[in-house]
Amino acid sequence: MKKILVTGADGQLGQELQRSSFIEGAVFLSYNKQELDITSYSKLKKLILEIKPTHIINFAAYTDIDKAETESKKTFLVNSTGVKNIALLCKEFDIKLIHLSTNYVYDGEKEIYTENDETNPVNIYGKSKLEGELEIIKSGCLYVILRTSWIYSNYENNFYINMLLLSQKTSEINIVNDQFSSPTSTKEISRAIDIILDKDINLENSGIYN
User: What 3-state DSSP class applies to 146?
Assistant: First the structure.
């Protein structure tokens, strides 16, 4: 039986996964940031020893891109140190890790990026997420890193919801026209995670996926 520890369960993806996951024979144990602080190695280890998960899905992250520029210490603490804690414990206890990363690890100079393209983050958020990725790789645990972009859902403040609300209030919407991305539904990400869990993570498929 798969026993899956989910961090950051109160975010968009955490909420979606709790509503839509259907893996047969799997138990999901979800914790929000108040219940589980990934920046505390000792608390994280204590919980892992208690519940003995086979997998960890890490949704916990500092995601406020603008505030990250002035709160860099906090950003790196969550997105790098916290991820390092998870990865090291995954290696120690033979736990498989699914981690959500971002397109912000790139510089945005290309229209399409593949996993083989060089990373070059241009802001604190991107740098912290890339550092988290590198900590996972360095740990030696089995992992799948999913680089996503512009996540949207029905559960939380996001670009899709904001545009929908604005369209109901006005006939004309003014937004920037110099940003391009691939909006990704939390439902699609949850389906992808279900497939990963079903097929499981091994030496052959462990790696980064855009």
Answer: strand
